[in-house]
Protein 1
Amino acid sequence: MPIVGLGTWQMERDDRESAILSIRRAIDRGMTHIDTAEIYARGAVEELVGEAIAGYRGEVFLASKVHPDHATFAGTLLACEKSLRRLRTDRIDLYLLHWRGTQPLEETFRAFEALEKEGKIRAWGVSNFDVADLERAIEIAGEGVIACNQVLYNLQERDAEHLLQPVCERHGIALVAYSPLGSGHFPSTGSWRGDVLAGIAEAHDATPRAVALAFLARRPSAFVIPKAARLDHVEQLAKAADIVLSPNEIETIAAAFPLGPPKSKMPYV
Ligand code: NAP
């Protein structure tokens, strides 16, 4: 599994050609975990991803998500079929429940297991699950079954480190960081926090965003899926996978972007 993948949320707003080329460049540069969802532009982003990865399917670790409103047993099977069609493939490598909705988890998970048996998905997990949701999910699914919990995690929002990441680690569940670059709100060079990152980036011949990704992925349980729809952005982010931050650099970044007290409600986008 690559530590640095590629997100695709809101890619329908980008220049289509540039977005497709960016996905292909990401695959070339080892960012082969491509994350999408049925809800993104009502399937249009899955279609874009399907076009981009046609011919490269074997190199891609493809993740998509079912909308909670569809997550009954039958609804999940149907949503998966539709995603497969849009993605132009016969299998999804990682299929997630997008967030905890009102459908019983038992039904959704039974559908995931059926899809896995049929070879239509290769692994499954959850997204936006807080500790209580995740513990309930483990109770239902059993140990060693849920592959990941995809949650909001970036330098300005480190709440996942308090409780969620340790729980994930105890149960062998990967923590996939979404919006790892703050969804476009990234500290600019010239601000003191931006300059902290810029100083460390210079030492690694990288950019501040790549350093931020390396920081978030510093523990083996964590993966990051930044979104980029420009070739130069992809090139810069790909470097994150090779950055090894020193303990001192990690401490400096952690001090500039403090963890803060635990939040009573899990943050999400
Ligand atoms: P993000 O990755 O935090 O930030 C993306 C923004 O950073 C884009 O505007 C992008 O610009 C810009 N960017 C990327 N590389 C850059 C660079 N080198 N220099 C300057 N700007 C750069 O945002 P996100 O899309 O919110 O999160 C990433 C992915 O997580 C999503 O795409 C989606 O797949 C997933 N996600 C999941 C959930 C969930 O509920 N499970 C929620 C939100 C997101 P360009 O696009 O112009 O390159």
Protein 2
Amino acid sequence: MNDDLRDHLARELAQQDARGLRRNLTGRGDGLADFTTNDVLGLARDPEVAAAIAAAALEHGAGTAASRLLGGDHALHRAAEGVCADWLQADAALLFPSGFQANLGLLQAFAEPGVLFVSDAANHASIVDGCRMARAARAHVVVSAHRDVAAVERALKHAAHAPRRFVVTESVFSMDGDRAPIEALLDVCERHDAHLVVDEAHAVGLLGPRGAGVVSELAERGLDVSRVAARLVTGGKALGQSGAFVVGDSTLRAWLIQRARSLMFTTAPPPALAAGLIEAIRRARTADAARSTVLRNARRLAAALALPEPDAAIVPFVVGSSERALELAQRAREAGLDVRAVRHPTVPRGTERLRLVVHAFNTDAEIDRLMARLRDEARHATRSASPSIGTARALAVVGTDTNVGKTVVSALLMRHARARGTARYFKPVQTGTDSDTRTVARLAGLAAVEWLAPLHELPLPASPHEAAAAAGVTLDPDALLDGIARARENARDAALVIELAGGLRVPYTLRFDQGELLERAALPLVLVARSGLGTLNHTQLTLEALRRRHLEPRALFLVGEPHPSNAATLRALAHVEHVYEVPQFLRLNTEALDAWLAQNDLEPVLSPRPNPSIR
Ligand code: PMP
């Protein structure tokens, strides 16, 4: 490696360090009680599973050294698939080298132009990346709020003309440990002719008949689960090894062999892995006693920490900052407990946590020790567990371009919000001498306490990076993000409308633009576009760029001369939940805003349905 590249990487790493976000490879904490791995049934340390792997390796060799399509396929792979399909009472299964690859391959194989994927906001990174690949194949992806069935339904309704619709969810979420409303999702899928993809990584082994997962549980209760197009079973969680099965119809299996690039172009797993999985499934099927122990202990731990009752083995203990999470994990380690911090960007900023995983082999004494360690902290942490408690309900107002009407939309949002409770307006970076803060304050009739002063007021009417240079300052991305985080804390419990600058690719510095700011601040947002000529292109390009960052606007505002055809086209194409039209007001004043608000309800944008999860 040459010096330039090494220096660059070293600088970036130093920044990760400075933000407390440096990640390290770590092994099992030797001699510590395991509250971190996903080996909930203890099968990773099971001698019989290990013996099955060893015997198969001796008999069939170390590995395959070929793709399953080019000589790497083995009878043991197919045997493991049969055992897994039988366990889940399904037609067929297909073994991938990992769950990450299985999700990528599955979503990519379903993706075609115009197909819709609705993905839960808390879905695993492999689903997020699978959706990104689907987008590259010109599928549409809508990210729905966590466990929000109504949002899923709205997205499906908007996509009635899509060739196919898929709803993608985990059955037990990996970071929050809560269960997806699978029954309600099945119902919505049935009514809107959509298909459900269920990642059962954290459910299989623990929930359902013989540990066969949530979908099996519903099937056993007599529900029609034919809307489930595919389930994912990972070998690296309760089965204690690695690899993953996509479980479903034999036609799906055949299709994946044609289409799933993460299967076609990767080396087949060693036959010994398949042998290990067969043995692990055999053990998991009869592990009812271990399952009850895990669930009972997870509930006992959660109750002691005043947390909601967990649905499976994962107990998320939210502390709200990376530093605190790291410090607590370190203190737990000193007490002999292997507990790990989960930080942003794995979880949203402000929900940094200890992800506690309870295992069948954890002793009562170990669990008591963990409870004792965390109980004091719990008294403090439960107060700040949710970012929606004690911090502002923030909403960013983003434009497709400059001068599209963000300020009017901000004023409308503020006018609506202050009539229903406390509201604050914040424009972090003001460029030009016409102050948007003053305009919004005038239009929405704000008192001085209802707006926060900008972090920067830069007189040149130009992009923030240029206006900053002209004023002799440099904008610091971390300081901007801290400023926004502080505004959210200070505007406690209020609705906080944050008006951002220009369009998405507007630079704050040459290496940090609006899109990155939105992504890193993890702000909910609305998109403002002009209603007239050119908006179809600009709006869809902006939506594409937002969604590539996994950002989903709650609403689209079309501002200016009414253009019914554009509004209708965007309602059909944009897949945004709410589309509002805001005319050019003859007189731009409070009365005009109130007249518009009398005809249009902004409540679903400012206060979407309460979210049952910790997010
Ligand atoms: N899906 C979910 C829900 C997961 O939690 C994980 C692993 N953390 C995966 C998929 C990926 O599985 P693997 O580790 O086998 O790649």
Protein 3
Amino acid sequence: MENSTTPKLITIDRHINEEQDLHPEATGEFTFLLHDFTFAIRLIEREIRRAGLNDILGLTENINIHGETVKKLDQFAFEVIYRAMDHNGNLCVMACEEANGLMKIPEKYPKGKYVLVFDPLDGSSNIDVNITLGTIFGFYKRLDPTLRTDGTIEDVLQPGRKLVAAGYVLYGSSTVMVYTTGHGVNVFTYDPTVGEFLLTKKGLKMPEWNNQYSVNEGYYHKWDEKFRKYIDFIKTPSPDKKRPYSLRYVGTAVADVHRVLNYGGIFMYPGDKSHPQGKLRLLYEANPLSFVIEQAGGRATDGQTDILDIVPSSIHQKTPLFIGSKRNVDELMEFLNS
Ligand code: P6P
């Protein structure tokens, strides 16, 4: 179905202002929040485009909470977002992949009523080979919006259904920001010559189905039997030519999910014998991606529960993720529930 592209030239700042009418209670704070966030993204975008030109590639001595070596670009993205967002007085706390616990707002700055969760740079294993990277983000309102104190772990561990805005940035052949405030999905493409994100798709709706699937087949023998049966099924030729499905896998979740958002199909990162909860993080990866996909008419589940209904119990908890076109996810669920 043709998505409506907009003939008007609208920057993301102008769009955020216009969307503010959809959130009467968001008295400008929300606009400032997204404005500051997109400023951080512009700085990250510039650094990523230069990454091949300076010594930013390679490894830092830092190791993050998951025991993964943090590459300099990860560190840069993490620090830029934190420093761009810590003083505007609209956040009470942050949480992200690169920080062990809650990221407090410095004492000297006022606290606001929003919470930011983010993965500063998704796909870091692809940094050194110039393959697409992403940033994933979600904003919650704190549980008691009248408070002006530090946010708490309860303010952070909210189900994805409670997100007030979420989305991702894809640093690909061009840089796009895809986000939603619960009123449809909008896509902005970055024009580096003017330093602006311009609205390129409004109210994006994803295809109901497509014969493309995205999963790391290398783990086939570690998957449970029902999931293997589904994978075998979609690879078996059918008389109506709808099967076999085509496999597409970048290894950066944001890139794989963005392709599914636009073309349809399904992205999957299941649990397996050695990692029953899979690899992707619920709070700052699965939830924001699922919020976008659901807003575009798709579906996201952990194989039993809709991702957005899972109540997080810890900041870095993992979840199996099956996300994509509604009919593709429904087809998978028939096998998982068989
Ligand atoms: P695997 C990137 O490191 C990441 O966290 C996601 O962006 C991506 O979907 C996944 O890991 C890829 O993991 O096990 O297939 O290499």
Protein 4
Amino acid sequence: MHAPHAAPLTKLPGPPNLPLLGSLPWMLGREGVLMRLLELAGVHREAGLFRVATPTGHAPIFVVSTALAEQLFDEKRFQKAIEGPLLNIREFTGDGLFTARGDEPAWGVAHRVLSPGFTADAMERFLPAMRQVLEALLMHWRRAQSPVDVVADMTKLTLDTISLCGFAFEFRSFETPALHPFLQALGRALQESLDRLHRPALVSALFPGKARQLRDDVATMASLVDGVIAARRAQPRAEWPQDLLSLMLTEADPKTGAMLSDENIRYQVLTFLVAGHETTAGLLAFTLHQLASNPPLLARLRAEVDEVLGTREPTRKELLSLSLVMRTLSEALRLWPTVPVLCVAPLADEVVGGFHVPAGQPLNVLMSAVHRDPAVWPDPDRFDPDRFLPEPSRARPSAAYKPFGNGKRSCTGRIFALLEATMAVALIVREFDFTANGPLVIAPTTSPKPKGLRLTLTPRRR
Ligand code: MNH
């Protein structure tokens, strides 16, 4: 079924495709692939989509307009596709929630078993553990003699938080300068998942060391997780904490009666550690950089925190009522979405932006570009939390803003992440004054982060 007016995908605009190199010369740059893709989005804004060619022979297609994104977020016609970095991450997260294919039954089973782990009640139970890890960060910062490495510290915060809340496992990252071997393995494995996309097959064949390192790292991660699961099983049931691991070990799928397999539980634990830390860490780092460079916003934010929390221990209700903190986080996720690409494929042949797209063809919605579409966002590069006041928010199409993904495959941990991030920002601004070491530069990591950001901390002047 080929619509007569639709052009073939080979006619898509994009940078040149050289033999062996593909569009590599157009993709490289100090700030990595993402920043080059954003530049290309500007060039191809009119068409709404473009394609690049990687040296591995793939030719990923990027969609950058809100209008086309709206079509692609129709779940009756498109579903999440496991391609690109997700396909590589799947080597260690398998059919876990994040990397399961649309038609894999394990997704539905795990989705139904794990959803009760993210209710308001569950968040109430997680709050003390979140607060405990945040206190370790604040203590570390109170003692800091030199500027702090924000990305490293936010990564420690979010990893320790998800592992403590999810699996009652304590990395105690702030007690040791060196990163836990598990976290080193995870960091390397995630980076390799991204680097592989741009490495020609010939180079991979000549240097098998990277593949061996990944196998070792996957084995390191699997053995720690299997140890945590075995330790839980060895504990008397009555002593099991009410966390995500207990949920997976005890609950059957309400629909099919199926239990998660041991292998699948390992995949889910790794999934939560992967999906649940880099993204929140990046969000916090971008937000702190913005606050360091935006004194009027910092002053407004503190006024809200002082009024709602005073100097007391925050409750969940109070945290949820910090609406300017929440809008600031939303705006940070608009400008720097820490999951910058959502990949979907059509269930049947489609025409997208005038091009014929066969069923199953992956399309990458570049949310970093959609979030800056000038057709929807006035003065799109300006940081303005008040875009997220109720009135302007209602006026926007829903496809214009999707930092937590779309529909049934959207983020399981959204409320968890926002609660964790809100408490961190609130207690940090309540206690510290801080200045950044320079303008924002984006690091070319799996999930974008402010590169080399350091903050000089002083106790807040009142
Ligand atoms: Mn999270 C899926 C963004 C924090 C657990 N997450 C997604 C997707 C986006 C996303 C986007 C959809 C990806 C896709 O379509 O391919 N997640 C975020 C952001 C933050 C975040 C921006 C923090 C800020 N996520 C978290 C935290 C957890 C978590 C914290 C766990 C506690 N996320 C998940 C899981 C999925 C997911 C699990 C997969 C959901 C599914 O497909 O069923």
